[in-house]
What does this fold into?
Amino acid sequence: MASKLLLWFKRLFTAADAHRELLRYFLFKDLTSHQRALVAGFLHNREFRAGESVFERGNPLEVIYFVESGEMEVSPLFEGEGSTVLKKNQFIGVLDLFSGKKRLSSVKALTDLKLKALSVDDLQEMLARDPALGVKLLQACCCFLGGYIRSRIH
It folds into this structure.
């Protein structure tokens, strides 16, 4: 009987933490386990080979990408800047989301890439399902964008 109770507790806590890996991404760091489970249900796996184009500047924004493994090169947003390399636990698309939903840069895979993709349509549906999640994501986006702006000023 005691062993069954112990197994039940273990399953209870394991299930609650099933999507803990999403905490690696800044946008999801303040989400509850329930909210992470909701987000995980909308994420899709994408893979790109080294040298492959992920998207081009001016394309419509379709998804926000979260890097699971590999490296991608992001073309400069502004003249005089160099390109940026994004790696594991980084993401791209938030700036595009708040800039007319068009891609502001081009991205190519430097190495084989494994990404999680969250479509803009799925994001809208998710936020309609859980407005508290929407508030947390909006706060995280604002913090991210504020940090981005500060990094460009200094």
Observations:
- The radius of gyration is 18 Å.
- The domain at 19-153 is CATH 2.60.120.10 (Jelly Rolls).
- Residues 131-153 form the longest helix (23 residues).
- Strands lie at 44-48, 53-55, 63-69, 72-74, 84-86, 91-92, 107-109, 113-119.
